[in-house]
Amino acid sequence: MTETFISWGMDPNWAWGVATVAGILLIALPLMLAVAMIIYADRKIWAAIALRRGPNVVGPFGLLQSFADGLKVFLQETIIPSGANRGLFLIAPIITFTVALLAWAVIPFNSGAVLADINVGLLYILAISSLGVYGVILSGWASNSKYPFFSALRASAQMISYEVSIGFILIGVVLYADSFNLNEIIKAQQGHGLGIVNAFGFNLLMFPLAVMFLISALAETARAPFDLTEAESELVAGYQTEYSSMSFALFWLGEYANVLLMATLNAILFWGGWLPPIDWAPLYSVPGIVWLFAKILFFFFVFSWVKATVPRYRYDQLMRLGWKIFLPISLIWVFLISGWLMLTRYS
Amino acid sequence: MIQLIAFYLFATIVIASAAMVIFARNPVHSVMWLILAFFNAAGLMLLAGAEFIAMLLVIVYVGAVAVLFLFVVMMLDIDFAELRAGFVRYLPLGTLVAIILAAELVFAVGAWSAGGVDLAARTAPVVSDTSNIQQIGELLYTRYIFLFEAAGIVLLVAMIGAIVLTHRQRGGVRAQNVAQQVRRRPEDATRLVDPGTGQGVEL
């Protein structure tokens, strides 16, 4: 984009600055719109599975429901509990929201269509997603209330546990793709399955990792069945119990932006990102961003589907799944994949 | 130009937040300042061209170590009056430690700047067409393989040691056997009976 601005007669330094700001806006604004619509979609899918109608009053088919909700929270008063730690109480939702937006900087939407094409893209995503836990811990502690604090403790243990197995799963992908750059990872998937399909997920050695990543992604974003941080039957509303108006809405937006990010990562790491599913020339005439969005929406549907059908885990079961099942399996898989690659690719 | 601004911004914030770690009254605030310091140190690493180290700093220190710090500190029952009570008693010892540290710092900086190598070359990245992940990997697994594996073994021993020290067998715990729970079938647990009128069911 910088070249475009230079061709318009701008100073290269200025062009770089303007292009970066434009790129950030070009990602962040549609993302916010997507989050609003995805919340609506989530509620509609959930309602359909429960044989209800879901939001259907505001606008045609209730399409404007999220915007009405947004306007409502915007007009409400921000209440800060008198016992709360004021500064941290207000910073916590801002951290959650900012971190949820930051990771999108390295997501490639098409060949070369990425804001920051850095060679440690996957590590950057891992680093940013490990920050998400701070918003939850701080809000729980700063609220100076018992239920949010319980929720914060649960959240920190849960997210750290699943980050470990996610880390090992990502190493499997990196070994196969031979790069940490997300664009390179997508390109490595072209014709991966016998030259027919463009996805790591069809590789028998990678498919178990794809399944584990999907489940770990549910745990990492604290979605059902792992939503113990906001288990309403035991913790009122979890870490956001004391929050109101915009500070609550920031948690809400951040949470769904994270869910979208995890769906996107599923699509990029295992199912070919912006590549068409089948390596067949006519399919490449469809823009890559369409394929990517179709895959993201599919995984988001899976997330909502799981939320509507699966009962909540107990906390000890959650920890058992993370530490005693996913961690050993993903560790063994790192050995298996590197052994297989040593036999086939590097010998 | 923008590198210079970024460097001074990151460096100032690192030093300021490191100072705030000590000066903050509330331990939780201290940990938050520490996290800010880690973050900006990662920014400095980026400026030095070591993006892999920068990301590791964020993942390991901010994402894991500092979370555990915060976890422990949040659960402390802090009494501020008690915290300040020992100030005079520990003052002589504290001053001694501070003087030694300051002297070491002066010596270190002196030796550093007296060396033959010019300062700019020390942080400058080696110009090469491979990324620094590949370079670090090649060094770690060839030239420094023994040191690398020795570090791994030391960490493993430390981990096992920590587990041995803290693990204790508690009696009287009603633990669940998950395998047994999963093995359980409806036939083992339920029974369909059709009692006649006036007859009960024997449990």
TrEMBL record, chain A:
<keyword id="KW-0520">NAD</keyword>
<keyword id="KW-1003">Cell membrane</keyword>
<keyword id="KW-0830">Ubiquinone</keyword>
<dbReference type="GO" id="GO:0016491">
    <property type="term" value="F:oxidoreductase activity"/>
</dbReference>
<keyword id="KW-0472">Membrane</keyword>
<feature type="transmembrane region" description="Helical">
    <location>
        <begin position="249"/>
        <end position="271"/>
    </location>
</feature>
<feature type="transmembrane region" description="Helical">
    <location>
        <begin position="155"/>
        <end position="176"/>
    </location>
</feature>
<keyword id="KW-1278">Translocase</keyword>
<feature type="transmembrane region" description="Helical">
    <location>
        <begin position="14"/>
        <end position="41"/>
    </location>
</feature>
<dbReference type="InterPro" id="IPR018086">
    <property type="entry name" value="NADH_UbQ_OxRdtase_su1_CS"/>
</dbReference>
<keyword id="KW-0874">Quinone</keyword>
<keyword id="KW-0812">Transmembrane</keyword>
<keyword id="KW-0560">Oxidoreductase</keyword>
<comment type="function">
    <text>NDH-1 shuttles electrons from NADH, via FMN and iron-sulfur (Fe-S) centers, to quinones in the respiratory chain. The immediate electron acceptor for the enzyme in this species is believed to be ubiquinone. Couples the redox reaction to proton translocation (for every two electrons transferred, four hydrogen ions are translocated across the cytoplasmic membrane), and thus conserves the redox energy in a proton gradient. This subunit may bind ubiquinone.</text>
</comment>
<feature type="transmembrane region" description="Helical">
    <location>
        <begin position="196"/>
        <end position="219"/>
    </location>
</feature>
<comment type="subunit">
    <text>NDH-1 is composed of 14 different subunits. Subunits NuoA, H, J, K, L, M, N constitute the membrane sector of the complex.</text>
</comment>
<feature type="transmembrane region" description="Helical">
    <location>
        <begin position="88"/>
        <end position="109"/>
    </location>
</feature>
<dbReference type="InterPro" id="IPR001694">
    <property type="entry name" value="NADH_UbQ_OxRdtase_su1/FPO"/>
</dbReference>
<feature type="transmembrane region" description="Helical">
    <location>
        <begin position="121"/>
        <end position="143"/>
    </location>
</feature>
<feature type="transmembrane region" description="Helical">
    <location>
        <begin position="283"/>
        <end position="305"/>
    </location>
</feature>
<protein>
    <recommendedName>
        <fullName>NADH-quinone oxidoreductase subunit H</fullName>
        <ecNumber>7.1.1.-</ecNumber>
    </recommendedName>
</protein>
<keyword id="KW-1133">Transmembrane helix</keyword>
From TrEMBL, chain B:
<feature type="transmembrane region" description="Helical">
    <location>
        <begin position="90"/>
        <end position="112"/>
    </location>
</feature>
<keyword id="KW-1133">Transmembrane helix</keyword>
<dbReference type="InterPro" id="IPR042106">
    <property type="entry name" value="Nuo/plastoQ_OxRdtase_6_NuoJ"/>
</dbReference>
<keyword id="KW-0812">Transmembrane</keyword>
<keyword id="KW-0874">Quinone</keyword>
<feature type="transmembrane region" description="Helical">
    <location>
        <begin position="31"/>
        <end position="50"/>
    </location>
</feature>
<dbReference type="Pfam" id="PF00499">
    <property type="entry name" value="Oxidored_q3"/>
</dbReference>
<dbReference type="InterPro" id="IPR001457">
    <property type="entry name" value="NADH_UbQ/plastoQ_OxRdtase_su6"/>
</dbReference>
<keyword id="KW-0520">NAD</keyword>
<feature type="transmembrane region" description="Helical">
    <location>
        <begin position="56"/>
        <end position="78"/>
    </location>
</feature>
<dbReference type="GO" id="GO:0016491">
    <property type="term" value="F:oxidoreductase activity"/>
</dbReference>
<keyword id="KW-1003">Cell membrane</keyword>
<protein>
    <recommendedName>
        <fullName>NADH-quinone oxidoreductase subunit J</fullName>
        <ecNumber>7.1.1.-</ecNumber>
    </recommendedName>
</protein>
<keyword id="KW-0472">Membrane</keyword>
<feature type="transmembrane region" description="Helical">
    <location>
        <begin position="144"/>
        <end position="165"/>
    </location>
</feature>
<comment type="similarity">
    <text>Belongs to the complex I subunit 6 family.</text>
</comment>
<comment type="function">
    <text>NDH-1 shuttles electrons from NADH, via FMN and iron-sulfur (Fe-S) centers, to quinones in the respiratory chain. Couples the redox reaction to proton translocation (for every two electrons transferred, four hydrogen ions are translocated across the cytoplasmic membrane), and thus conserves the redox energy in a proton gradient.</text>
</comment>
<keyword id="KW-0560">Oxidoreductase</keyword>
<feature type="transmembrane region" description="Helical">
    <location>
        <begin position="6"/>
        <end position="24"/>
    </location>
</feature>
